[in-house]
Amino acid sequence: MTIPAGGIGMHLYTMRDVLAEDYPGTLKRLAGIGYQTVGVSGRFDHSAEEIRSYADDAGLKVVLEHVGYKRLADDWAGALADVKTLGAQWAVVPSIPSEQHSIEGFKAAAAAFTEAGKVARDAGLKLLFHNHGRDFDEVDGQVLYDILLGVDPELLGFELDLYWAVDGGHDPAKLFQEHPGRFPALHVKDMAEDGSWEDVGAGKLDFGAMFEHAQAGGVEQWLVEHDKPTDAWKSAERSYRGLTEIRYSEL
């Protein structure tokens, strides 16, 4: 199998420098490469309404937006309203504050996600959490990420960043199998031999082996990301080709 065209997207953090210069033009050029969806990360002084119009004009679908952890308490209803305006289905918390990287802190985050997930569900949306490597740290025999996996699946899903999962010592394929349906969106980010970021398909991660279990994991969106591309457009084009060339078996 190959990844379905409608599931191939770009997480816009990759394109932040060019977005700051020309948001609508960037979206049109991404569509020209072949991307069909985007994940929003940073508005660059544009409203949700404006970004929705830019995406519509480009023929792209916004599938999610990253929303800071503090907004869970400060303005969650407003954040969800913006996600709906964008036409997206997922509100994604990109990280937990560093001062909460403890068992107690992750339990507090799990409680906050539970309540926020209820509000999102009532609004017809879904709350997701995006991981970094240290979210898989083990503290006193407890893997922090597992605390979040304990939240009701109806209230919290996950945008699994494949690079950071591997960096944190975990196998995405195993996560898909052990926690079916929890991972509707992925950050497809490759790893160079020296451990730095690389364009999709040019690094050492075995995405084909991971994606053999993507259906079990509930994956619907494969979003390209590169944290620090030398040339955002070359990276976007190269990663698109790399992602479309990945083959995997449906087990």
TrEMBL record:
Query: One matching Pfam family, short form?
Result: AP_endonuc_2
PANTHER family referenced in this protein's UniProt entry, alphabetically: HYDROXYPYRUVATE ISOMERASE, INOSOSE DEHYDRATASE
Q: What is this protein called?
A: Sugar phosphate isomerase/epimerase
Is Isomerase included in the keywords of this UniProt record? yes
Q: Which InterPro entries match?
A: IolE/XylAMocC-like (IPR050312), Xyl_isomerase-like_sf (IPR036237), Xyl_isomerase-like_TIM-brl (IPR013022)
Xylose isomerase-like TIM barrel domain segment(s): 28-224
Q: Which UniProt keywords apply?
A: Isomerase
Task: Read off the SUPFAM superfamilies from this record.
Answer: Xylose isomerase-like
Gene Ontology molecular functions: isomerase activity
